[in-house]
Design goal:
alpha+beta, Heat Shock Protein 90, 3 domains, 5-stranded antiparallel β-sheet, 74% helix, globular
């Protein structure tokens, strides 16, 4: 590989990172906007101290978020597998299973919220003062739980169907509805927490209805059918989705404990300050958490491609460009800590204003460290070190903060809890380098060793990579693929099959994927030979893959139509597809029996 090509690929990766990062950061930030609106309305129109009501309910929302994460994580992987294999009926089955389980979970919480709100308020840790506000909040929020959970699931499937604009329209409508109803119900009609919860519930319904109407149109590739539900895949779905949701479960448990600690040692003021942070944290942490999602996404693809150079470059980007940006965010939070506190609490002389300002000042130091934790956790998850990711989740989400808080809060009050957050993040950030040292059995001498690259990419495989810029190059590249496979001691038949698969899919991309689009296009091909398998990875920036069209190609009655695609489907033992914001990634595995 020459120097010019290396520089070109490096720039392509940098461009891809900074195309993905704003979108992922926006997804994280959007979750805080409704909470921020509710918090300002509660603090300014009801009572600053009573903002803790929302903080107590936040623990329940964390649990629902974890349930949603399990369903989303497992469904995304299973749908990707089935869609790549052209099994649209199974993709529909997972879609139906996902929505059914989301409905069941939402219905259970809704019924409990309406039937026993007093018991739920006590379970969430409310004292008698906060209980009076929390009970109506639980009851009226209940009517919006089902559309909230279902909307979260539909948003993920709409991305799969390339309907991202509809999601953004739904989010915009939800935010505007919530703001308008908060002003009407809380500020003017003085409905207090009942109005606050009702506004959020109605906005959840608006969001859900905007999303779900797509599935009543003829354009929808997926549809809900009770008879299609793949109940047998539910255990697999949970097993896949649970590791990514463990952190959220731990955060929910941590919220329950920390809320009680603050009420005991700092009163409603401390709980109110923590609630403010929970409301705005999505905005403060959008960049580092979004970066973590990008690391997981791109590392997963690069590992499948056996592209260790891109993995190393990706981590370098995170610890240079993105780290500098998070330091800037942290500095801005420190300088604006007074203004952030004043957004919720108007009286600078009040205790709640003082401890909230102190919290933001201390937390500003944590933001760059959160990036380190997010990058490490998502990287190790992508390379398959799930048990270590689970350890990180338990430490980061619970132990590393709760233990210091229990020790410091009796002495320092709310300040002890704020310091425990910093201590917890430092401990979590140190776990990853300690893990790398233990795995290497020595102090790593390079970034490659810190990332365990020699273990992730053992030198027992062979690789071939090339970029096609024109359709006329396909035949010659197919010959090179076959020659490479045969030189790698792959049998002639398997080598011919690999070359044929590559030729047919590349030709299909140039003929159909690039039609009607004037962008500069290219097809990036990588061939990996490992463990008697030929792995073909074909990446392009053409029209997104349509699974329904693929299935129709395979079902075509005429034996002469789409014969190339049929041959590929028959030769490949596994086909998977992923779309990364404008990049189609198709992976085919051909077994050498």
């Amino acid at each position: 590989m020459n120097i010019r090509r290396v520089r070109q690929e490096n720039q392509l990766l940098i461009n891809l990172v900074f195309r993905l990062l704003p979108v992922q950061a926006l997804i994280v930030a959007m979750g805080s906007i409704n909470s921020l609106v509710d918090g300002v309305a509660a603090a300014r129109s009801i009572s600053p101290a009573m903002i803790g009501v929302i903080g107590l309910y936040y623990s329940l929302l964390r649990i629902l978020e974890a349930v949603s994460a399990v369903l989303l994580g497992g469904s995304a992987v299973l749908c990707g597998r089935y869609m790549g294999r052209g099994k649209i009926y199974k993709t529909t089955g997972i879609f139906s299973l996902n929505l059914s389980m989301a409905f069941i979970c939402g219905a259970v919480v809704t019924i409990l919220s309406l039937a026993v709100p007093s018991h739920m308020a006590e379970w969430l840790g409310a004292d008698q003062t906060l209980k009076n506000g929390l009970i109506p909040y639980i009851q009226w929020y209940a009517i919006g739980i089902l559309p909230m959970l279902l909307g979260q699931q539909l948003a993920s499937f709409l991305q799969l169907e390339h309907q991202g604009k509809r999601c953004y329209i739904g989010i915009t409508a939800m935010i505007l509805t919530n703001i308008g109803l908060d002003i009407l119900l809380v500020v003017f009609l003085k409905m207090d927490f009942m109005g606050l919860a009702l506004a959020t519930s109605i906005s959840n319904w608006v969001y859900f209805l905007i999303l779900v109407t797509y599935y009543f149109s003829r354009e929808a590739q997926l549809s809900f059918h009770f008879s299609s539900i793949l109940w047998s895949d539910f255990p697999t779905l949970v097993m896949i989705g649970f590791p990514g949701a463990l952190l959220v479960f731990c955060l929910a448990a941590r919220s329950l404990v920390i809320n009680r600690v603050l009420l005991i040692y700092s009163g409603n003021e401390g709980l109110a300050a923590m609630t403010v942070f929970n409301m705005i944290s999505g905005l403060l942490l959008a960049l580092p958490l979004g970066a973590g999602a990008v690391v997981r996404m791109l590392t997963s693809v690069n590992v499948g491609e056996e592209d260790k150079e891109s993995v190393i470059l990706l981590i370098r980007i995170m610890y240079t460009y993105v780290l500098a940006a998070t330091v800037a965010v942290g500095l801005a939070v420190f300088l604006l800590s007074r203004q952030l506190a004043g957004l919720f609490f108007a009286d600078p002389a009040s205790e709640v204003f003082s401890i909230t300002k102190q919290f933001f000042s201390i937390y500003s130091v944590c933001i760059p460290l959160v990036l380190a934790c997010a990058v490490s956790s998502n990287y190790f998850q992508a390379i398959g070190h799930i048990w270590f990711v689970n350890v990180l989740s338990v430490f980061d989400g619970f132990l590393a903060m709760v233990i210091p808080a229990l020790l410091l809060a009796p002495v320092l009050g709310a300040t002890g809890v704020w310091l425990s957050i910093l201590i917890g993040i430092v401990i979590t950030a140190l776990l990853s380098p300690i893990y790398s040292i233990l795995r290497c059995k020595s102090v790593p001498a390079s970034l490659s060793e810190w990332l365990l690259i020699p273990q992730v990419f053992p030198e027992n495989g062979k690789r071939f990579a090339v970029t096609l810029n024109h359709a006329r190059e396909i035949s010659s590249v197919a010959e090179r693929v076959q020659a490479f496979c045969e030189l790698s001691h792959i049998g002639h038949v398997i080598a011919s099959n690999a070359a044929l698969c590559m030729e047919e899919m590349a030709l299909n991309i140039f003929q159909h994927g690039f039609r009607g689009n004037r962008r500069n296009h290219s097809v990036d091909l990588r061939v990996i030979i490992r463990d008697k398998r030929v792995i073909l990875r074909i990446k392009d920036n053409g029209i997104p893959f349509n699974p329904k069209e693929f299935v129709e190609m395979l079902r075509e009655n005429s034996p002469y139509k789409n014969i190339g695609t049929r041959i590929v489907h028959g030769l490949a033992s596994d086909i998977t597809y992923q779309n990364l914001i404008g990049l189609n990634v198709l992976t085919l595995v051909i077994e050498n029996y």
